[in-house]
Amino acid sequence: MFVNFRRIRKCQCVQLMTTCLVLSVVMVCWEQLDNNVVNHVKSYSYRYLVNRFTYINKSLTISREQARSFSSFHYLLDHPEKCSNEDVLLLLFVKTSPDNIERRNAIRSTWGNETYIKNVLGVTVKVVFALGAIQTKKEEPLWSKRSGVGFQDQLIQEDRVYGDLVQQDFLDSFHNLTLKLILQFHWMHNRCAHARFFMTADDDIFIHMPNLVSYLQDVSSKGITDFWIGRVHRGAPPIRSKDSKYYVPFEMYQWFSYPDYTAGAGYVVSSDVADRIYHATLTLNASLYIDDVFMGICANAIGVSPQEHVYFSGEGKAPYHPCIYNQMMTSHGHVEDIYDLWKTATHPQVKQSTSGLMGRLYCTAVKMALLCKPSYTNTYPCKAAFL
């Protein structure tokens, strides 16, 4: 048997060139690969193979004196008697910016209308807007307590009319969202601890209040505790790219994975969980400014895990269709269309057209077409079509 050594050397040369080409591409794209692939591999390995989230609790635990710096802000606007002498099913905090008055008015006129909820749904839901102080100059530091006098006067006037603004004197900014979350849990602990449920939501979210109230009444009647529902993120890694809005440096959070948490657009916890989260904030470092992740860290510290509810949207907007409205809880990204959506989604005809055997079969087919798509939309999952 004869061996063609020249041909072997040629194949080896081709292999070597191919290897060099692949390595060159990897070297060029390494940063992108590290951010999008390697981080997720590390995250899932940490979560499912190591799973030592107890280290996170220890690394972020600080003294009560240190933790007090994240909650010792003064109230600029407050309503201590908001929940007094009432059986409150739900305390609903809406995270809002001082200049988003149109969004607040839209919520007051639609799903956040307390009078409608009381008279039509027969329960008491307290809707409160959480905000910080007004930013007047870009060069002001994150912890600045200065505020624009003129704009603050407008907020005071707005609050005199509606009585639903809760404001502290930390600077209202993206990097202080965790302070805004702490404000909410501390306010509930001190002002509305008897509410059966607590919810936090963005001011561009739509909540189908009749569906949510009915669901929470059922949960309350069963006496369920350790309750935390929303759109769950599992095994999410910290984003290390400095170009991202959600960039978290290694010095701030050194672990490969976040504990499970729910999307901050909207989630609900029972009162027992809210009280324990409050106590967790008294000993945890809240410098991590991604508020929904900080919520996950607090919940991990008290041994509570989030539960997925398929009709709580993440960052996506739910499809417009009566079959969706019939079971919708939340949908994200609604500003201009909130009035029309409220009118359409809560119309009595929605229940009529989706009830009965034929209505359910029809809606299953419609939801399969709307939700079971190859592309990821970050809204309701495909399995929602079969519930």
TrEMBL record:
Signal peptide extent: 1-31
Species, as recorded: Amphiprion ocellaris (Clown anemonefish)
Catalytic activity: a beta-D-Gal-(1->4)-beta-D-Glc-(1<->1)-Cer(d18:1(4E)) + UDP-N-acetyl-alpha-D-glucosamine = a beta-D-GlcNAc-(1->3)-beta-D-Gal-(1->4)-beta-D-Glc-(1<->1)-Cer(d18:1(4E)) + UDP + H(+); a neolactoside nLc4Cer(d18:1(4E)) + UDP-N-acetyl-alpha-D-glucosamine = a neolactoside IV(3)-beta-GlcNAc-nLc4Cer(d18:1(4E)) + UDP + H(+)
Keyword entries, A-Z: Glycoprotein, Glycosyltransferase, Golgi apparatus, Membrane, Signal, Signal-anchor, Transferase, Transmembrane, Transmembrane helix
Enzyme Commission no: 2.4.1.-
Membrane association type: Single-pass type II membrane protein
Protein name per its UniProtKB record: Hexosyltransferase
Molecular function terms, GO-annotated: lactosylceramide 1,3-N-acetyl-beta-D-glucosaminyltransferase activity
GO BP terms: protein O-linked glycosylation; sphingolipid biosynthetic process
Functional pathway: Protein modification; protein glycosylation
Gene3D superfamilies on file: 3.90.550.50
Superkingdom as given in the UniProt entry: Eukaryota
First-tier enzyme category under EC: transferase
Annotated Gene Ontology cellular component terms: Golgi membrane
Family recorded in the similarity comment: Belongs to the glycosyltransferase 31 family.
Location relative to the cell: Golgi apparatus membrane
Keyword field contains Nucleotidyltransferase: no
